[in-house]
Amino acid sequence: MTVLQTCASDDETTEYLETPASEETLDGIGVEEQLQPDEHDGGYGWAFGVYLTHYISTNAFPGTSEIAYSFIGGLSQSQILLIAPLVTHATRVFGTKPPLVVGAVMEAGALIGASFAKQSWQLFLSQGLLFGWGCSFLYIGTIGIIPQWFARRKGIANGIAAAGSGIGGLIYSLSTEAMISNINVAWAFRITAICTAAVNIICIILIKDRNKHIQPTQNAFDLGLVRRPELLLISTWMFLSIIGYTCVLFSLPDNAVRIGLTAHQGSVLGALANLGMAIGRPIVGYFSDRVGRLNMVISATLLAGIWCLCLWTSGTSYSALLAFSILGGTTVGTCWAMVGPMLADAFGMKLLPSALSIVWTISAVPSAFAEAMALGLRRPQAPVYLDVQIFSGCMFIGAALFLVPLRFKKRIEAMVLSEKQ
């Protein structure tokens, strides 16, 4: 027997399918949610911006175009999402920890393999393909665990968890640039591999899920959901947001170099953007619990576009880019932190894994090609990144607008529910 709970905040009506009553308490708190992802956008992505700057500025692999370099990072991001259904199926069959072990081995092996790369195609296979697979097994394999331990204040809980990728990105950005400058790029890869492997092993040992109690369905796909307008609107929001996010993600370090700053200053910008995410995600999560999920997500996504159009376009000095890195970082990654709660609100817990698999698969496309698009939009003369900045801002604003119909739909549902009561 399940309990159907209808939750109405100021602006939205949310339905959740809870666990059986005999299983629904945890330290006195009902467990509402089964699978709700918290963060992606891994902090390593910001470090790739440092690698990208190094590859381009030093012509590390002669004959390789800048567009080709950009596809390495794009390939990595896209693979994380593209094989999500496979990881979801593996987690259902083998449990939580075996896929995590596979991911940890793949991730460390990819970084070590990249350290020995002599040609660009070897980077595509290691830093691109294999690293993306490893991240997918680690990320997709754990996205449902934190919500299993929380019932109320899910927004702030997810926000705090998502802030971890911001802190990791801050460390990655500064340490990667320092290692490349003071040692070499090969040992930067190897040291990163050792550190990430050690942390992953500790986390895998300590991690604990509640799958035996909650029994999530973990279905890979439900194509019937494609006809639902909610999924189409959220998928479009995610699609456009990823384009804007990725353009910012990989462009900041090279943008710094293009205006005459040093590679170290570029890495600082990436680090501060991660700091902004670490600060902003808990704030977005907290207020999404207070003022309504859609209200906060629309506002944060719109604000990301405003930061790009007003602040990033003015980034002709180090101080201006510092301001954009911190302020922009608070909102540009909203899509990764909030896509799970939004899908949970729209479809409930039983359909969430299938909805996520569809959104992940669709999102693999912009993840793969967004940075190549950004490099193609660069101008041959100053301001080199102006078109990229305008394009990114428009993507965020467009993404926010696609959620407006969903916002009105939720409002109407809340009014109907109020009249019935």
Automatic annotation (TrEMBL):
Keywords of the record: Membrane, Transmembrane, Transmembrane helix
Origin species: Hypocrea jecorina (strain QM6a)
Superkingdom field: Eukaryota
Gene3D superfamilies in the cross-refs: MFS general substrate transporter like domains (1.20.1250.20)
InterPro entries: MFS, MFS_dom, MFS_trans_sf, Proton-linked_MCT
Listed name of the protein: Predicted protein
GO cellular component: membrane
Domain called Major facilitator superfamily (MFS) profile: residue spans: 230-421
Alphabetized GO MF terms: transmembrane transporter activity
Subcellular location: Membrane
Pfam families assigned: MFS_1 (PF07690)
Transmembrane segments: 129-149, 156-175, 187-207, 231-252, 264-284, 296-314, 320-339, 351-370, 390-408
Membrane topology: Multi-pass membrane protein
Family statement: Belongs to the major facilitator superfamily. Monocarboxylate porter (TC 2.A.1.13) family.
